[in-house]
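so my prof wants the structure for this chain in the tokens format not the other one, which i didnt know existed until like an hour ago. anyway here's the sequence
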Amino acid sequence: MSRAAPPHADGRFLVFAGVIILAFAIFLIVGVIMGVTMTGGLGGWNMQDHMAGMMGRAGNSPQTPVANSQPEVSVEIRDFEYFPRDLTVDAGAKVTWTNRDSAPHTATAKGSWDTGVLKEGQSGTLTFDKPGVYDYICAIHPSMQAKLTVR
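here's what i got, hopefully its the right format
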């Protein structure tokens, strides 16, 4: 009477177990990387701040309109807001938007001008030669709204 060999005797069981362990390890590593990135660890952007901007909780702090006759003017993007939110400049002024948030942002006047996507620490500069009133938003977080007046 011959005895049947155990299921792992021919190596198929070991290969199957190895594949399962490898798949689990890859899944675990990807999950950790995504978790660290979304919580702002290791230089990633913060998912909670990003969602606050997406859900319309941007632009709530009180601000005073700013009129600036300098040839170069800065707008800071932080906490899902533009600072200043209401800016007046002279024709020919260069306006630079600098993103201080961990989430990417834009300054976009529909059909008119766009800084492109600005990641944390990046800036975009545009020159405004034509007088007018430009309402603009962040194309990624539309609840972020501001106004630029060129006189």
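also thought this was worth mentioning. The radius of gyration is 26 Å.
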